[in-house]
Amino acid sequence: MADYKNFTVETDADGIALVTWDMPDRSMNVFTEQVMSELDSIVDQVTADVAVKGAVITSGKETFSGGADLAMLQKMLGLFQKENSRDPDHAIRLLFDNVGRMGQLFRKLETCGKPWVSAINGTCMGGAFEMSLACHGRIAADSDAVKMALPEVKVGIFPGAGGTQRVPRLTDQQQALQMLTSGQNLTPQRAKAMGLIHEIAEPKKLVAAAKAMIKGGLKPVQPWDEKGFKLPGGPIYSAAGANLWPPAIAILRRETYGNYPAASAILKCVYEGLLVPFDTGLKIEQRYFTEILRTKEAAMMIRSLFVSLQELNKGARRPEGVPPTKFRKIGIIGAGFMGAGIAYVTAKAGIPVVLIDRDMEAAEKGKAHSDKLVSEQIKKGRAKAEDKERLLSLITPSADYADLAGSDLVIEAVFEDSEVKKATTEKAEAALKPSSVFASNTSTIPITSLAKNSARPKNFVGIHFFSPVDKMMLVEIILGKKTGEKALAVAIDYVRAIKKTPIVVNDTRGFYVNRCVLRYMSEAFKMLIEGVPAAMIENAARAAGMPVGPLALTDETAIDLAQKIMKQTIRDLGEKAVDPEQMKLIDTMVDTHGRFGRKNGKGFYDYPEKPAKKHLWPGLKDLYKQRNPDKIDYEELKQRFLTVIALEAARVMEEGIVTDPREADVGSILAFGFAPYTGGALSYIDGIGAKEFVRIAKTLRKKYGAEFKAPKLLLDMVEKGETFYQRFDPYAKEEAKKAA
Ligand code: NAD
């Protein structure tokens, strides 16, 4: 057979071709234009060569494949946009044809007349799983490393290469819809139970078992190409269909509030596609895919949730020239709520941890948190007893600062008190080499002022985690005035080692995330004071795309904490810095009613014993005269939330606190779930256009106050017709380098 760059093809004595996908220049196989054209030739050869009876396709890497290269989709869109200004009809036709290529290739493989088996040896995502579904046999290795999914919906698109047609022809419609609209991972066992794969094999015997399927006479015809094919679970127009579809549409609405066009396109593809023959179904899918790819949501989500996220995770902001850090030991001081969580995620990454507190009992208690978390994982089948043993053996509790000696990095998470932090820094540095980096997890004290306690402020940095540490994927790295490049590189290396996403933020009150979050909460307090019913406030925020309502969020982080922050702000910045009405609301909640939030079971919500669900505290109605909900502009409530946060993000950019729009966008989604379909707080403005956004902000400012004042930066962007990604082009440096 011919030579290929991305595949090897070896035909054995039984005439079975083993097609091994192993891209030489990538750590993971992905579908690129070249991969597609090579696979196309391989299908042709397998079909034409009489000596070949069938083919097994597998991967030469640990993973099977990550699916389509999204850069390829971005290129198609680029072509479309270019052509669209010249000849819109032709542009759409071109896009339609381009997006159909992958689906046609898989259809060709499926109807080539010879059996193909996909031997899934590791993670198999998106387009690669769609290709596997087009194979006549599918077999997965029995390993925790094997995960299969069609996760496209998570980046604003959907499986457009036959996925929406093959899945509901292999499994019942309810399971199909759930899998396609959630993008959930399937284990081999789950995929087999759903009928999506045929067999599970021992990893070492995977290829042999795949070949055996062909030798055993696997028919090179898919069920839907057989005469008399019947849909599993029955046709759309049946009693089962009538039971499924009306609630399915309602559930989608409940989950997405209509904000995710790709999710509703999936429902349309499945519903319409199952009413017609398979090839027509593929055409329907191709049409919807062409439409969805052109949505703002797809462009923004692909950019932030795939491209930028990956770039940040790979260390896009890491200074060049600093050698990578190999962590041999990390010290954590303060084994409380945060320190215990930081110890867990560090040990989980395989790094030895010394966990210090004021006495051994407190340090042990911090370690017990890891025991609890890993034990829960074991109960859920997500970890094994050996994982627990290994993880716990990596955490050494101690009350002796001398044990910090030899740490590459120390993170302090002691009380939020400048004096305690000062003493901690001094004691720790006495035990450390001058080259080790010292980080503070403070949430409010400027890093520059804490660095004054350090004998080597160059090696002093902020590493700001969010709670709960094990669940929150974002970490803010805060640069003090004197923080050096090495400290930044070490901090980024650490955040990458624990598999979280770092964003780099310059020192300021509240850093980036909390500044935005406080705006979100404060807007809700204002609405309460205006007499907007609390349920309407929470619902409007969720309908705008926020995962947690602002009152629920305040309860989670604690209302007395909000009170402390407001009081501290008044002390630091003066009375005018906090709205007295809002201060009164929070004082009433905490001081008059003893409502601290979820932690004491009483906040904006009541938290009755399980299984009863939390519900809004009825007493809220008595705090302010309630307005008639019919007279309240619900769309405006939604707009207020997104606008007030986006404005704060714009101010943060104006002040140079965040300098890269990718970080502001990704940070806003990972930290507080800023309406993901917008692509993040800045992409929200870019998506609307600065001009229209400023117009909206001006209208809201007149009605609701100064928090809606657009910063000069935005006015300037309006004048110049710029977007954030043009003005703060994150790739400008790279491009200038390339050009030079
Ligand atoms: P916490 O009170 O739960 O824990 C603090 C721990 O530090 C306690 O176990 C205490 O015994 C220990 N400690 C105090 N002085 C010490 C000393 N001199 N030496 C060793 N240990 C000492 O507090 P927390 O909520 O974990 O917060 C810790 C830090 O993290 C604070 O700076 C806070 O602002 C920051 N932070 C908190 C959150 C949050 O959601 N709670 C989020 C981000 C950052």
From TrEMBL:
Pathway: Lipid metabolism; fatty acid beta-oxidation
Catalysed reactions, semicolon-separated: a (3S)-3-hydroxyacyl-CoA + NAD(+) = a 3-oxoacyl-CoA + NADH + H(+)
3-hydroxyacyl-CoA dehydrogenase C-terminal domain ranges (all copies): 510-607
Start and end residues of each 3-hydroxyacyl-CoA dehydrogenase NAD binding domain: 329-508
InterPro entries: 3-OHacyl-CoA_DH_NAD-bd (IPR006176), 3HC_DH_C (IPR006108), 6-PGluconate_DH-like_C_sf (IPR008927), ClpP/crotonase-like_dom_sf (IPR029045), Enoyl-CoA_hydra/iso (IPR001753), FA_oxidation_alpha_subunit (IPR050136), NAD(P)-bd_dom_sf (IPR036291)
Coiled coil spans: none
GO BP terms in the entry: fatty acid beta-oxidation
Keywords, in A-Z order: Fatty acid metabolism, Lipid degradation, Lipid metabolism, Lyase, Multifunctional enzyme, NAD, Oxidoreductase
GO molecular function: enoyl-CoA hydratase activity; long-chain (3S)-3-hydroxyacyl-CoA dehydrogenase (NAD+) activity; NAD+ binding
Entry similarity comment: In the central section; belongs to the 3-hydroxyacyl-CoA dehydrogenase family.
PANTHER family: TRIFUNCTIONAL ENZYME SUBUNIT ALPHA (PTHR43612), TRIFUNCTIONAL ENZYME SUBUNIT ALPHA, MITOCHONDRIAL (PTHR43612:SF3)
Name this polypeptide is given: 3-hydroxyacyl-CoA dehydrogenase
Organism: Borborobacter arsenicus
